[in-house]
Amino acid sequence: MFTLPDRVRDRACSLGPSGAAWLAGLPDLVAGLAADWALTIGEPLSGGSASLVLRATDGNGEPVVLKLGQPDGPLAEQADTLRRAGGRGYARLQRFDEARNALLVEGLGPSLETAGSSPERTIEVLCALLREAWLVPRPAAPPGAPEKAASLGAFIGEAWPALGRPGPERVIETALGYAERRAAAYDPDRSVVVHGDPHPANALLRRGDGYVFVDPDGFLADPGYDLGVVLRDWLPELAGTDDPDALLRGYCRLLARRAGVDAEVIWEWGFLERVSTGLYCLRYGAPELGRRFLASAERLR
Fold first, then answer.
1. Matching Pfam families, A to Z (predicted)?
2. 221 and 194 in contact (C-beta within 8 Å)?
């Protein structure tokens, strides 16, 4: 019926019995949703690993996308963020089934990642889109999740020794110092509903309406966090220069100008994300990518 992407399978397997049960039940789960929502299922979309994302068409022949979250990733908050956005800055939510951890959104066009734009142009587009996405109303009862910097610091502190201490200790110490500083600066009153992972592959083209985001995490945080995620990437560009620090600092200044956020705040979030993402990839089935993130952090001053 469909080919399960290796990254999705590998991550599910890393979850142990719950992931194995999810994998075993996928054919029946997809078939049941297709019947209930009058969908014709197509091929998976590539990219992430924490969900199975399938192209589909609805009963009217319109393109849609079906997303099924793995057992450790409930989609309720994502669905709620999309519902509150109402299509502004985000894909339009069509259906959500909490019991089956599945949602359905409008079909969209190609991603910003495939547009062939320069890094500078990509950053400008993402900043403009983030400024719109940050206008999503807060939830009536914000979830009591830990502050993001503190949770990233805790993850790094636990994962680095558990994974055999990959990378130099000074990189970890720098990341943990930035985590402490960002956590201490947290101000709930100045927080926004962040996307949480606004990289170019999560910005897709809506016909006649420019780019919109998909896959929001949708939690309250410093807007600098989202900008740090944008700064986190650019691995090919960093690998291809003799001075990655100068190149990334230039991107950081552009982000600061376009979004109106302090450049040093963005830099700290970006480094923290770079290190935590590297460790996350090592733990959850993408070791080569994880090593590239950590190697890029090692080259920054």
1. APH_6_hur (PF04655)
2. yes
> Residue 143 — pLDDT band, cuts 50, 70, 90?
low
pLDDT at position 50, please? 87
How far from 257 is each of 57, 59, 82, 261, CA to CA, in Å? 41, 45, 28, 7
CA-to-CA distance for 28 and 17, rounded, in angstroms?
Answer: 18
State how far the Cα of 272 lies from the Cα of 153, in Å rounded to an integer: 8
Q: What domains lie within the chain, and their CATH numbers? A: 6-106 (3.30.200.20), 112-298 (3.90.1200.10)
Listing DSSP states for 193-248 in one string gives E--S---GGGEEEETTTEEEE-S----EE-HHHHHHHHHH--HHHHHT-S-HHHHH
